[in-house]
Amino acid sequence: MVIDDKFYVGGARDRQIIRMVRGIRRFHRVKYEPGVFVITLPLFGDGILEIYELNELRQKIYTDMGDAIHIVGAAPSRFQAVLLVRDIIDDIYKKTGDVDVERFFAS
């Protein structure tokens, strides 16, 4: 898993943000990290952004992907993650005039 430099956080207080980021970084050493939803670039080439519960990424299909999982944001609930996806797309459009999310995070 790769955490992007332009990492977005939604709907969380300072302590929650720290806990979420630590949970993502310690992902392989901790058994279960509750209440962290991550936003990734499309894993299978279809869509704009995808939302996963962090623990879902422990499944073999995802662990075999390694650094192909590109995390661009995190939120403490699925609802907050959906709102964050909207905010990310709005932000990208305001900055670039386009919604090419992969190009934005590649630069």
TrEMBL record:
Protein name: Uncharacterized protein
